[in-house]
């Protein structure tokens, strides 16, 4: 384990040793990966959107059994049971609550009053300004290079905008995979970096080995709306090509089937799914067809990430997949990232002093 120390507002806020965050990837960021990141000194984020409330409670306990280090849980702010999940995090004394969408101001206040660090994810400066004004402790900003749901603005443009706009720690995501990126993010004024694809491609990730090999063997990603109606960066595969060329009606039929499958997997009732759909429709101003298509996401990801059937599912991926060719452990990865970043920063200082 490296003895390098990069003390930043992120490490001081969360109590982790290194300013490196593993993002809450559905079906991927489970107890095994999260605890490995935590034990290596980073901030592991448990993905809860694909879990029932009871499954989330069990997952938190499993992480606790594997590590004594701080970790976080990613929540859907628009979920019908978001309040119950927040109560669970408070009871379990989870250190960090992260959100893919901005939580309501009263939810932020409730978490902060209980001593939970609140870190929403955003893709635009105005969203960062909003959650900062509501009391968020930090913000994770993802540029268009990132995998999964993504925007069109590159990290190198979005990050400095957000750093200049808010006075809370900013975590940079989208396009990071090594220590040079961490050093660059710190130079921009960020407090650390968050990585998804890079942590997915570790030996501690539970993604099937055959699927990992597909990631390592490709460099081609595409942003498609055919998964769930919103921009989604995934690996380009024959299935994705077929989705891109399919008609609207076939997409809706597929979405209805996947909604039924997701209901069985998640334990949700149809009324619960409808309530979540209404919240999603209002929060993102989506059409009903887009809301229905959102059921595609968890099941198409599960097919590849859990069942090992990339021919039947999609694989979210950042553009950095083209630069990754190994499967280190989380400890090896974080040590290498932090050591290289420290070396780069020292080298820059020496060069400027000459």
Automatic annotation (TrEMBL):
It comes from the Bacteria. InterPro entries: Aldolase_TIM, NMO. Keywords: Dioxygenase, Flavoprotein, FMN, Oxidoreductase. GO terms for molecular function: dioxygenase activity; nitronate monooxygenase activity. The keyword Flavoprotein applies. Pfam families: NMO. This is 2-nitropropane dioxygenase. It comes from Streptosporangium carneum.
């Amino acid at each position: 384990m490296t003895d390098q120390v990069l003390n930043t507002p992120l490490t001081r806020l969360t109590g982790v040793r290194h300013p490196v965050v593993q993002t809450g990837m559905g079906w991927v960021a489970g107890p095994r990966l999260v605890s490995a990141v935590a034990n290596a000194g980073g901030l592991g984020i448990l993905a809860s959107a694909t879990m029932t409330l009871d499954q989330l409670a069990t997952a938190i306990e499993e992480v606790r059994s594997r590590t004594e280090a701080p970790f976080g849980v990613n929540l859907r702010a628009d979920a019908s049971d978001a309040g119950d999940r927040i109560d669970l995090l408070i009871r379990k004394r989870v250190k960090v609550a992260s959100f893919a969408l901005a939580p309501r101001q009263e939810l932020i206040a409730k978490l902060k009053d209980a001593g939970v660090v609140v870190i929403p994810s955003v893709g635009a400066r105005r969203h960062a300004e909003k959650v900062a004004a509501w009391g968020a402790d930090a913000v994770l900003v993802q540029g268009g290079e990132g995998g999964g749901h993504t925007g069109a603005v590159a990290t190198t443009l979005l990050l400095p905008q957000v750093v200049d706009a808010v006075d809370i720690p900013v975590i940079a995501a989208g396009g990071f995979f090594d220590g040079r990126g961490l050093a660059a993010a710190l130079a921009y004024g960020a407090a650390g970096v968050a990585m998804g694809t890079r942590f997915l491609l570790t030996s501690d990730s539970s993604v099937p080995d055959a699927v990992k090999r597909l990631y390592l063997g490709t460099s081609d990603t595409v942003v498609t709306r055919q998964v769930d109606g919103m921009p989604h960066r995934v690996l380009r595969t024959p299935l994705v090509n077929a989705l891109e060329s399919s008609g609207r009606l076939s997409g809706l039929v597929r979405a209805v089937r996947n909604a039924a499958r997701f209901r069985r997997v998640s334990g949700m009732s149809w009324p619960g799914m409808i309530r979540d759909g209404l919240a999603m429709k209002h929060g993102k101003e989506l059409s009903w067809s887009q809301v229905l298509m959102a059921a595609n996401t968890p099941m198409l990801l599960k097919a590849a990430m859990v069942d090992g059937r990339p021919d039947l599912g999609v694989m979210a991926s950042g553009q950095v997949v083209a630069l990754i060719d190994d499967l280190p452990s989380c400890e090896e990865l974080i040590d290498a990232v932090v050591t290289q970043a420290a070396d780069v920063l020292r080298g820059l200082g020496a060069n400027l002093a000459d």
